[in-house]
Amino acid sequence: MEFYRQTKSKIAKELGTNFEKGLDSQVIQEKLAKVGPNALVEGKKKGVLQVFLEQFKDLMVIILIIAAIISAFTGSLESTLVIIVVLILNAILGTVQHVKAEKSLESLKSLSAPTAKVIRNGQKSEIEAKNLVPGDILLLEAGDMVTADGRILENASLQVNESSLTGESTNVDKLDTQFDKEVPLADRMNMVYSSSLVTYGRATVVVTATGMQTEIGKIASLMNETKERRTPLQVSLDQFSSRLATAILVLCALIFGIQMWRGQQILDSLLFAVALAVAAIPEALSSIVTIVQAMGTQKMAKENAIIKNLAAVESLGSVSVIASDKTGTLTQNKMTVEDIYIGEKVLKPQELNLSNQLHRYLLYDVVLNNDSSLSDGKAIGDPTESALLEMYRQVPGIDLGNGVLGLSEQELREHAGRLEEVPFDSDRKLMSTKHLIHTVPTIFVKGAIDVLLKRCINIRLDNDTIRPMTDEDRKKILEQNNRFSEAGLRVLAFAYKESNEELSINSENDLTFIGLVSEMDPPRQESVAAVTRAKEAGIKTVMITGDHKVTAVAIAKKIGIFTDGDMALTGLELDTLNDDELDQKIEKVSVYARVSPENKIRIVNAWQRKGRIVSMTGDGVNDAPALKKADVGVAMGITGTEVSKDAASMILADDNFATIIKAVANGRTVYENIKNAIGYLLSGNLSAIITVLFASLVGLPVPFVAVQLLFINLVTDSLPALAIGMEPGDPDILKRKPRDPKEGILNKSFVSQIAIQGLLIAIAVISAFLLGLKDSPATATTMAFSTLTFARLLHGFNCRSQHSIFKIGFKNNWYSLAAFAVGTILLALILLVPGLHSLFAVETLSMQELLIIAGLALVPTILIQISKIIRH
Ligand code: ATP
User: Fold this and answer.
1) Where would one find the signal peptide in this protein (predicted)?
2) Does ligand 1 come within 6 angstroms of the Cβ of 460?
């Protein structure tokens, strides 16, 4: 059925729905069972088998397979077998980790799944969008994402952005109309389509198609491929791995050449090359990164920060500016009306008088020009507006039913129904509605004082007269506004005019001023501590708000964002600065007031020009571009629009500024843990490379066989590396400066640290090898292998933190002890169970030799620990 060409009654019949009451529960269940959930079938995911096979595509693994083949030729079939078994184990491990990481991403996705407002069983409710069915009555307003296709039933200036469907980026107007002939999709103004964004206005819509039946579903089925996105860190490690692989191949060829030149047999020379290749390949590297990131995001989700884009975890670690909204993020967003300025007097709500005409007009404006509602003491809607309804209820006489104004707010709203409206938007900072008051068409306007006062020409007085507004009046009003603002109160101004003109942005002029209402929104308790922690962490917090500058500065001072010597700018002042001037001032500015969403983008750009990594919060429809532009765009889980959540890379489930700071700490810890795990793996590998190179250059026999190195790299090294990844993090992590974003993970000091530690372990291993050689080459190999394994297991403790093990202790990371214990037991089994000797090419060692091994393996760790103690 082509719904855009049908009459509404036909549509209602076809879909079996009622436009006023919506569907009832039973019908919904039946429909849901029939058409399935409202979700796009995701592109074919890789099957487990495919993931498993892909583990063998890696160049490193291919080198290992070649090593296995060479081993077979050199007569050690057992080695070949072990290599193959280990490779399969490795692939299984890789597959499990891949599936786990994928699952954890899935669960994050479901945490940020979109919702939809509907009318069902005759009542308004909010449901998960995936439960929508055709026939549902969907309520759309600015900031929503359209989650199904639908036909418009009622329209109040709805504008949507359909770029994801049509590619057209301008907003399109929607209409409640009917077409009698065929029109292309982009011109069907009476329809809305899934995945478009509501940028303005409101509408009621009947759902006509869900899931894969929607227009976007039809396109999605054509391009059913989900791309795997890799984070910058993963990409740079991939690049490092491929460079390493090339270097290894070159080195192997070189070693092979040297051995041949020495007059060795081809097969013996090959053994050297194979040992080197196996020693050098950090098999566990890439999966460790994936798994540590996945665990990090899980932890963040538990602490209310939902990561939508893995790259944000890395960026969080180097965030040095957080630009945060005030209302709801730094403050509680629990507004209460404090004082009212009306008829040149400051009054409390209880002091308003129903028989005063001026007061009555304020109350009309307060209730009628208001989209909130209070039911059972609970507020639904914008807290700024809910506070006004609470105020209305405090006025003496309201509940008594004496006269029109005695009516409850619902009754008043029914009595003077809304004829037209221009909704509030944070650019215009005004809202207007039109009603019949005693049969006279009247437009009520409320909004920010600086915008509204300019549009007032008259003032209504206490004695029920109206006269032109004088400069003296303006001065008095502004002075009062200043007094409210200095106390940190949000101020709303109220005005009206009697007029029958069609209501639009252009009719918000020639108004009559009524009064001011001030509202208190206390700072969140956690905000002050969080701002202090941010400061210690080298992060500047900047407040961005639509509120008045004086109000904003007063609150910013309370929270600790605005300190002596800081500056505050309004959006208008910002507009007068060019980029150079802004760049000069930006470090000083800690409050931006009366900003528009475009201002936000300029602020992000200016900080980014300074090379800073910026996190910015946003909740409105128009915030999406700024959220996308920021390095870490943060949306509000509770009050945020679907549009802002869609654009953000992190969502705060509790809307709380303090959660951002926790997420930064987690981001830093994840990065630190990954770095430590990488350091551990690479320094261990380096020690083996140095040993093999040394043996080759000096003309000694090959110190390890491939199986031994594989055992270390894949088994005994993986466990401590994982344990390092689980490290809970340095409690002082927020006392350090943010990481320099330009610096790669493998910076100079890190590389030299890896080199020194690798060299220390190598010296211990070479000593063991030389001592063993006095006995036999087989003993030498056994001793070298055992020392290498044990030294690397011990080295796991060194890499947990920058601090010495005596400072961090074992209690907060039992995994590291467990990893060490398991590795040591496995090594002991290899050395002590004779049946395993031939598999791993080891000999039985004497007690004295075992003690030598333990002693030598301890030396690097002792030295590294001493150096840590000295350095701190
Ligand atoms: P923040 O940016 O700190 O989150 P905000 O986004 O809530 O603040 P806006 O909602 O843009 O700020 O409000 C800016 C100004 O607009 C307020 O100071 C108030 O004067 C006015 N205002 C706020 N809400 C309404 C409303 N519903 N109707 C009319 N005017 C409003």
Assistant:
1) none
2) no
At 230, the pLDDT band (50, 70, 90 cuts) reads: low
3-state DSSP assignment of residue 546:
coil
Mean per-residue pLDDT, 242-257: 86
- How far, in Å, from the CA of 201 to the mean position of ligand 1? 17
User: Is residue 631 within 6 Å of ligand 1 at its C-beta?
Assistant: no
pTM reported for the whole predicted model = 0.81
- Please tell me whether residue 456 adopts helix, strand or coil conformation: strand
**pLDDT tens across 462-489, in order?**
988 999 999 999 999 999 999 999 999 9
Confidence at residue 113, expressed as pLDDT on a 0 to 100 scale: 77
User: 488 in ligand 1 pocket by Cβ < 6 Å?
Assistant: no
| pLDDT surpassing 90 at residue 743 | no
Give catalytic status of residue 58 as yes or no: no
Which of 334, 443, 491, 492 to mutate for ligand 1's pocket (most ligand atoms within 8 Å of CB)?
492
Q: Atom 4, ligand 1: which residue's CA is nearest?
A: 327
Convert the pLDDT of each residue in 576-599 to its tens digit: 999 999 999 999 999 999 988 889
**Domain covering 306-332+524-655, topology:** Rossmann fold (3.40.50)
CATH topology of domain 53-92+234-303+664-871: Calcium-transporting ATPase, transmembrane domain (1.20.1110)
Lowest mean pLDDT among 23-32, 166-175, 193-202, 301-310: 166-175
Instruction: Indicate the pLDDT class of residue 625, thresholds 50, 70 and 90.
Output: confident
Fold of 3-42+106-211: 2.70.150
Q: How many A from CA of 648 to the centre of ligand 1?
A: 22
Which of 373, 428, 429 for a ligand 1 pocket mutation test, highest count of atoms within 8 Å of Cβ? 429
Q: What are residue 612's phi and psi, to 5 degrees?
A: -90, 150
What whole-number distance in Å separates Cα of residue 801 and Cα of residue 815? 14
Cα dihedral 293, 298, 300, 301, rounded to 10, equals 140
Q: Does ligand 1 come within 6 angstroms of the Cβ of 490?
A: yes
Contact (Cβ atoms closer than 8 angstroms) between residue 458 and residue 512: yes
Percentage of residues of the chain with pLDDT beyond 70 = 97
Whole-number average pLDDT of the chain: 88
Q: Where in the chain is the domain with CATH 3.40.50.1000?
A: 306-332+524-655
Please, where in the chain does CATH 2.70.150.10 lie?
A: 3-42+106-211
Q: In 3-state terms, the chain is what percent helix, strand and coil (to 5)? A: 55, 15, 30
Give dist(CA 543, CA 558) in Å, integer: 12
Cα–ligand 1 centroid distance for 427 (angstroms)? 9
Residue 329 alpha carbon to ligand 1 centre in Å: 14
* 471: CB partners within 8 A, 6+ apart: none
Based on the number of CB atoms within 10 Å of its own CB, is 54 exposed (0-12), middle (13-18) or buried (19 or more)? Answer: middle
Catalytic residue (one of 58, 136, 144, 325): 325
Burial class (CB in 10 A: 0-12, 13-18, 19+), 212: middle
- From the CB of 816, is ligand 1 less than 6 Å away? no
Instruction: Answer yes or no: CATH 3.40.1110.10 is held by domain 336-520.
Output: yes
All CATH 1.20.1110.10 domain ranges of the chain, comma separated, are 53-92+234-303+664-871
pLDDT, tens only, 22-41: 999 999 999 999 999 998 77
